[in-house]
C-alpha cells in the first residue's frame, strides 16, 4: 500500500508518499481499496502544525475515502467483497488500502463516481448536521454561509435549496460568484471589496439572519453573532483565520485567539440568540447518527437534489500541489486525491 505522510510540520514539500505493508482487517472491520480520498482544510492545517487533533508527526491524515471492499474482518456482515462504499475515518485516509470499522462505511450507488463518494462524507455530513440536526432549518429562513464556494459551503447551499424559500447569503471572492449562484446562493457577497457585515445588514434589514455558518473564527464570530435575529444561531465549525500563507505564525495565532468573543449564558439569554459548535472528528461516538445522515444524503443524491462538485483531482504523487491549491483558496467545491 502507498500512503501520503506528513513528515514534519511545514510547507507542502514536507509531504512524502511511502510504501507500507498492506494490513489485514480486524474483527468488525472491512478493508477498502481506496479509489479516491477527500482533502479538507483540517488536513492542510495539520500539515502546518495548526490542527490540535492531528496525531503526532510523522503521520497519515485523511478523514474520508471511497472505494471497493476487498477484505472482510471476522464478524463483519454489513458488506461483502466488491461492494462500493464511502467511509469516514479518523485519520489515515490518504492511502491506497484502508481498514475501517464496518459501521463507518455506507454504500454508494453505481451512478456515483468514487470522486463524488469521497467528497460526500466530511463536507456534506458537516453541512447536513449543522442545518438539520443542530439548527433544523425551516422554510423561509435566512442563512449566511461563509466560504460559500468551498466544499462545506457548496454542500450547505445545495442542502438549503432542498427547503422551500430559504434565502442564502454567501461570502466568496468575485470570481466565484457565478459558481455559488449556480449552486443556489441568493446573494453572493465579495468579502474582499465589501464589508460583508454591512452588506448583509443592507440586504436583510432589521430582520437579521436566522443562521450563520462560520468556519472563519476569531472576530468573524462576533460579527456573525451581531447579524442574528432573535432566536437565531451561529454555528462555528472551523478556524480558517488561523491560516496565514501556509506557515505557523505565533503572533497571528495569538491575535486570532484573543479576538474570539466570550458569551455567558446570561448574554445569550438576554439577546435570545444561540451559539453552537460542530467538529465532525469529535462525533465518532455518534457514528450511528452519522450513518443515518449519510443514508439521507445518499437518498438526496439519488433524487438529484445534491451533487458534489469536484473542482480538481490530484494524484497522490502531486499531493503537495493539492495542499498548495487548497490553502491558497483557489478551489471551488472539492479537491480530491487519487492513487
Question: Would you spell out the secondary-structure blueprint of this structure?
Answer:
Blueprint: E1 2-6, E2 15-19, E3 29-39, H1 41-48, E4 64-72, E5 84-88, E6 97-101, E7 105-107, H2 114-119, H3 121-135, E8 142-145, H4 151-160, E9 167-171, H5 177-182, E10 187-189, H6 196-204, E11 209-214, H7 219-226, E12 228-236, H8 250-258, H9 265-271, E13 274-277, H10 287-302, E14 310-315, H11 319-327, E15 334-338
Parallel strand pairs: 8-9, 8-11, 9-10, 11-12, 12-13, 14-15
Antiparallel strand pairs: 1-2, 3-4, 3-6, 3-15, 4-5, 5-7
Helix pairs in contact: 3-4, 3-10
How would you sum up this structure, described in words?
The protein is α/β, with parallel strands linked by helices and 339 residues long. The protein is 30% helix and 25% strand. The chain has eleven helices and 15 strands. The chain has helices at 41-48, 114-119, 121-135, 151-160, 177-182, 196-204, 219-226, 250-258, 265-271, 287-302, 319-327; strands at residues 2-6, 15-19, 29-39, 64-72, 84-88, 97-101, 105-107, 142-145, 167-171, 187-189, 209-214, 228-236, 274-277, 310-315, 334-338. Strands 3, 4, 5, 6, 7, 14 and 15 form a seven-stranded mixed beta sheet that branches. Helix 3 packs across helix 4 (151-160) and helix 3 (121-135) packs across helix 10. The protein is globular and about 60 Å long. The chain starts with a strand and ends with a strand.
